[in-house]
Design goal:
Order of helices and strands: HHHHHEHHEHHHEHEHEHHEHEHEHHE
Number of helices: 18
Helix content: 40-55%
Largest sheet: 4 strands, parallel
Strand content: 5-15%
CATH class of the largest domain: Alpha Beta
Shape: globular
Number of domains: 3
Bound molecules: iron/sulfur cluster
């Protein structure tokens, strides 16, 4: 069902739900049979659980689009995640993926960045008041090189990994952490006193626009996405393409691309076509796209188990490689890192590009795709060294 993006993130509407089970039957991940789907919905609606949903649902929001009645079943599943966390807690190994943990996957990468990228992060920590700024999001904080481009010169980037938007808390049902995140971001926005914020990540754009206000974010800052900014500047000629990128490319959709609708997810495609690339879509694309892989770790039955995350990432890479396209293009830097990490262990190699790098190439710059591969390999190494050792640890920590 097509509706405004914000509506996909409002609560599950039990009155609209006819318990038809379509959401779980047509879910590209769970693919339940009708009887099991109806039983799962019946149980979840009455406050019970469902093993398959709690073990496999990637909170990708696809079923909110599938539902013919606009009932937002994904939010029902997130409520079940939340309840599970309150009752059973998180496994010890999940902490490596918690956004504000000191010893986590992002800080592992950030502590190993070269001096020029560390200098960028330091610059972005500037908290002096400003009218307009660009919020990098924590995924760009582990890939700062993406912003090193002539057409991004002069952008006033402000933020840090500590100022993460909490998207991973949202998709795992961690309401307590979301409230803490909203309070922290209120302080950040109040201190800056800005009127406009452009966000370099689709997840962050959605969190600030549609989710964090439900958890206490209070701001009247005008929020926009870099995707629109990029396309407007290309169309107006402010960003002028000087050479073509004549490759075949397939696109890894952000989970939020589908909820922002066609106008949004078509922009990366327009940019690729303007670049000269030939697009070959994966079977699961646009509104039925798979999550890039991190979603495999979101359900409480996984708790960021690296085996689930790897399996979900390889599922996407299998599809991408089967298209025959030479390149995988992501417009979310989180997807870029998932694809790059999967490619680090995949037997067949494909180029992985961020959309910003496509534009950088076309304006005559030389984006270093080797850095994408390097960050992907670092992500894998960090998991092996720091997370895997906890896989047999029985300790669990409950949410509040
Ligand atoms: S949420 Fe929508 S698709 Fe799912 S059971 Fe209810 S009405 Fe059917
Ligand atoms: S949120 Fe995604 S994975 Fe979960 S049931 Fe809906 S479509 Fe399936």
């Amino acid at each position: 069902m097509n509706k405004a993006p914000a509506e996909y993130f409002s609560k599950y509407d039990a009155e609209k739900c006819e318990v038809c089970g379509d959401c779980l039957v047509k879910c590209p991940v769970l693919k339940m049979n009708r009887k099991a789907a109806v039983k799962a919905m019946t149980d979840l609606r009455s406050g019970g659980g469902n093993d398959k949903v709690l073990r496999r649902c990637e909170s990708c929001f696809g079923c909110n689009i599938i539902c013919p009645n606009g009932a937002n079943p994904a939010q029902l599943f997130l409520e079940a995640f939340h309840k599970s966390h309150l009752e059973s807690g998180f496994p010890a190994w999940s902490f490596y993926f918690q956004p504000h943990e000191e010893n986590n996957f992002r800080n592992y990468i950030i502590s190993r960045l070269p001096a020029d990228e560390k200098a960028l992060l330091e610059k972005w920590r500037d908290m002096t008041p400003c009218e307009e700024f660009v919020y990098p999001g924590c995924n760009v904080c582990s890939t700062p090189y993406l912003t090193k481009s002539g057409f991004m010169d002069g952008l006033n980037i402000r933020g840090s990994v500590d100022l993460c938007c909490g998207e991973m808390y949202y998709r795992t049902g961690m309401h307590d952490k979301l409230r803490e995140t909203a309070a922290k971001l209120n302080g950040f926005l109040d201190n800056l006193g800005a009127k406009k914020m452009m966000i370099l990540c689709s997840a962050g754009y959605n969190m600030f626009s549609n989710v964090l206000p439900q958890f206490g974010l209070k701001t009247d800052v005008e929020i926009s996405s870099y995707i629109n900014w990029l396309w407007e500047r290309i169309e107006s000629g402010d960003i002028r393409f000087k050479r073509k990128l004549e490759i075949t490319a397939t696109i890894q959709e952000s989970c939020y691309g589908k909820t922002f609708g066609e106008d949004y997810y078509e922009i990366p495609r327009k940019i690729l076509r303007a670049a000269g690339a030939k697009i070959i879509e994966m079977p699961h694309t646009k509104e039925c796209a798979y999550c890039c892989g991190i979603g495999g770790g979101f359900p409480p039955g996984s708790g960021y188990n690296p085996i689930d995350i790897t399996a979900a990432s390889l599922r996407v890479v299998n599809e991408a490689v089967a298209t025959g396209a030479k390149a995988i293009v992501a417009y979310c830097s989180g997807c870029l890192q998932s694809m790059s990490a999967a490619m680090a262990v995949y037997p067949v190699k494909r180029q992985v590009w961020h959309l910003l790098q496509v534009v950088q190439y076309c304006v005559g710059e030389n984006p270093d795709l080797g850095l994408n591969a390097q960050r992907g390999a670092m992500l894998v190494r960090g998991i092996l060294l720091n997370q895997s050792v906890h896989l047999l640890n029985p300790k669990r920590v409950k949410g509040s």
